[in-house]
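> example.struct
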């Protein structure tokens, strides 16, 4: 171990380039924090700015979670946590899923979702009878498979595109149904006008 004239500490190096510089030739470098004893102890690294603790990363023995949290309390502050099964949680201390987020999720993606081709001339819209037969047979809408056994990896952007396509198809069905309803109303009005008084 070496402490240079600037106060930098080197372990495995004689020229430390930071406050603590650990080096080992031809081997992986490990820094171990080992809290021992019979009680509930934490192994943590804290981050401070001008004496005020800004965050903590470490093992929370009381919840059995590896955590990265803002502030100074690894037990109660919510941040990022990983349990022994590899489940990751954000905003909760009890992940029940591979990724468990308690709160709003915002995403960005350079792709675009659009389905306006549905409104273009020549788009093949199934008849309602064909759609009914398909749903009876396949148990899902055409092109939309959300069953994890049939589609284990769902691309949310593609799924949003398909859902938009179905909304636009529904709009076309409603327009067609409205035309048919209007025609029927006109026929009923004519029949009632020709009915003897």
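> example.seq
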């Amino acid at each position: 171990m070496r402490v240079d004239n600037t106060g930098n500490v080197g372990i495995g190096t004689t020229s430390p380039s930071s406050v603590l510089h650990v080096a080992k030739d031809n081997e992986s470098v490990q820094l171990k924090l080992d809290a021992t004893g019979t009680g509930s102890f934490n192994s943590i690294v804290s981050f401070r700015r001008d004496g005020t603790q800004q965050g903590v990363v470490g093992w929370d023995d009381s919840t059995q979670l590896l955590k990265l949290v803002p502030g100074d309390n690894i037990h109660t502050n919510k941040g990022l946590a990983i349990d022994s099964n590899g489940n990751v949680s954000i905003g909760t201390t009890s992940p029940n899923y591979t990724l468990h987020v308690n709160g709003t999720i915002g995403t960005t993606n350079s792709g675009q979702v659009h389905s306006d081709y549905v409104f273009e001339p020549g788009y093949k819209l199934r008849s309602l009878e064909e759609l009914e037969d398909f749903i009876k047979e396949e148990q899902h809408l055409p092109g939309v498979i959300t069953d994890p056994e049939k589609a284990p990896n769902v691309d949310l952007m593609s799924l949003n595109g398909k859902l938009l396509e179905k909304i636009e198809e529904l709009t076309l069905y409603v327009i067609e149904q409205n035309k048919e309803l209007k025609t029927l109303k006109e026929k009923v009005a004519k029949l009632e006008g020709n009915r003897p008084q």
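> remarks
The mean pLDDT is 86.
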